[in-house]
Amino acid sequence: MSSTLTDTAPRFLADYRPADFTINTVDLTINLDDTCSQVISELTIKRQGDNQQALQLNGEQLTLVSLALDNHALSNDQYQLNDTILTIPASSLPDNENFTLSITTEINPQENTALEGLFKSGDAFCTQCEAEGFRRISYYLDRPDVMATFTTKVIADKSLYPYLLSNGNKVDSGDLTDNKHFVTWHDPYPKPCYLFALVAGDFDLLENSFTTASGREVALEIFVDKGNLAKAKHAMVSLQKSMKWDEETFGLEYDLDIYMIVAVDFFNMGAMENKGLNVFNSKYVLADSQCATDSDYFNIEAVIAHEYFHNWTGNRVTCRDWFQLSLKEGLTVFRDQQFSAQMHSSAVTRIQNVRLLRSQQFAEDAGPMAHPIRPEKVLEMNNFYTLTVYEKGSEVIRMLHTLIGVEKFRKGMDLYFARFDGMAVTCDDFINAMSDASGKDLSQFKLWYSQSGTPVIKVQESFEQQTNIYTLTLSQHSPVTKKQQDPQALHIPIKIELISGNNDKANQSELLELNQAEQSWQFSGFIGKPTLAMLCDFSAPVKLVFEQNDVDLLTIMKKANNSFCRWDAGQKLLMSYVQQLAFDTEHPLPKELLMAINEMLTSAGDRAFIAEQLSLPSFDEAASLMVDVEPIALSNALSKLSSFIAQGCQQELLASYEACQQERSTNDTPHSGVANRALKNVCLAYLSILPKYQALVTEQYQHATDNEDIEQENMTDSLAALTCSAKHNLADLNQQLQHFEKKWHQTTLVMDKWFALNAGVVSDDIFSRLDTLLAHQQFSLNNPNRARSLIGAFAMNNPKYFHCQTGRGYQFLSKQIAKLNEINPQVASRLITPLIQYKSFAPAHQKLMKAELVNLQALANLSNDLKEKLDAALSD
Ligand code: TRP
Ligand code: ZN
Fold first, then answer.
1. 380 in ligand 1 pocket by Cβ < 6 Å?
2. Core-most of 34, 247, 326, 514, by most CB within 10 Å?
């Protein structure tokens, strides 16, 4: 259910105080039952220093059964209880500084649709404690700087729940009466309660092992729903690759004898790094080539790596308080991005990171919920698992890596672990370790942790013909907001490449450190003005104001060594036409653009990279670069530009499509298979605009989905074809959707794709389609993946109808959010994102969106999750 109404006071970073008590050991006995699970918690507690504070434990939605101090029952006049806190006044506590507290509580997992604390996913029990879910399991000091060793005895029916899992090592097990059994687990590493986990159920188990660099054998176990064993192989290989990579890159070994992963269908987020027992959204575990796309495979590997890497960056060294979340998340995202870049194409991986950042994080940082990567004020912590904390947080670590270099970065990591292993620390602690190990002054760099908003860098160039001196002047400013009146100049690494006009001179690469409001650099030795390729590898999360003409952009596309810059110049060129078309639908488009596209298509490079070059900026990427966005005009501009390219380059698109198609059967590396499909499907997306090529869509759909040779079936190709049908509402669309549903109706994760496809249909009957989908027997708002695949996909991937002039798209979203507010506030709060960013749109749309926000704000039982966002959006 929604958060309690009594707890509506925000918390501030500035108010942090160490706890008055620590908990050294936790002994849990959990007797599982669908509607009434019993939790007995025995805590050994120690008062810190000689204060006279009361002991205040967090607890929500718990039924207190009994309470005893040093084995003496407490009567109800010896403690106070409200909806969120159990208070034991100093007068009820013993004089000695150490004491034990025994608490028995009851909870109802079946009714727990918020999926925080102990809940049921299908037939299995499982838990989610980060950030503050443990307080829904038992009364506790639910804060990350309270670290204890946990021993957990799980009791449940033996036939229904043959596997009983928790953190650490199995130390005991046995049978009990009434067909019950128990397993006891002990985790030797002290940890905050947010890393606690429990799972009970019947699963298929994939087993393997890993031998660490120092020769210890670690058992690897992946638990999946019965019948899915073959789909866990890719996750297992990904885990082994991650373990090896962390040893080789950072010298970090795994520390327990067992590492377990459980895949569940009901989960609010991607996955959770509980010590020794990760719980995953099944979407980030299960894959085979028939039912998963290439990007599913990529994402599974990345999320497995992310959670594994948390064992050091998050678990062994954890956060002092939740304001420090980016300490573990930004760093761990950086680590998983580096891993992915090494496992695949580093150029394409980087481009995809940047696309996500620019399309989503920039919008968040410009909206009402903008916050520094280390937030300063929080009402509902779940609202701060954001693109800013994760993705911008990773960019901040990457800048540090760029500024000090790979070797000193490694020295800094070593020092960080040497200093802080087993502790709960701050972002400042991390930066100080990096500074001490590298000798670099990072005091100004720390501002990245306290300032919000995307900095804007203005670029000015001049060239003096007599002296051949090229001068580059950069100025920076961060946005001023109500919460941020006086932003300071940041320390920003700017990597550039100067491309000489004459071919004899190699490009000159430089790392500039911009740390003032305005700075100039001079370069000599050029004959004629060089062309500037700015922000190589996207060396900083900033926006550029830099008027580069088409000739310069084309030069960069051809001659820059840095692949990111080559791609980015192409995107900038495309974006300039999108902007012009959004303003004037008849804006003429030049032949040179077609020539540039043809050149890309026929170049010999990595096809996955070419696919990225050919892809237009997404609606969101384009919107984040514009003001007062007219969404319909923008969506029409994107369509118009695609049509122009499809028309003008049809021969070359078809030739590339066919070349990729032919090589399908002769892939020499897994990457070339992925790359071929990526390019082929970008070509298909263009070709499907033109009626004469639409038969290709049908052909590809059938080949990939309905093939006599099942080995030939492929979800990437199948979905790509369907997406074309949905986007252009092709004649075969409805038949294909029915066929796909019939084929996959028993496969949950594929049905999520089907719902998302339906929600993306570009057709005037979309709202009646959405109503039919809501009533579909497989639709349920209680399953977060399903809710996101219908509601999220409509709001994010169908801009033409989400933003339609009648406001029906906005109404649809707000109506579903109102229902989700009662069921699962975390999911409701994530899905509201496109509405709270209303200020980036033109006034007529703002008005319609705002009206929905006002309606939502008036809901009875409004959760803190939504309240925090609505208040921010409407007071902005
Ligand atoms: N720590 C998790 C991660 O990075 C995030 C997470 C998983 C989470 N489940 C959650 C955060 C539920 C809040 C609520 O990868
Ligand atoms: Zn994480």
1. no
2. 326
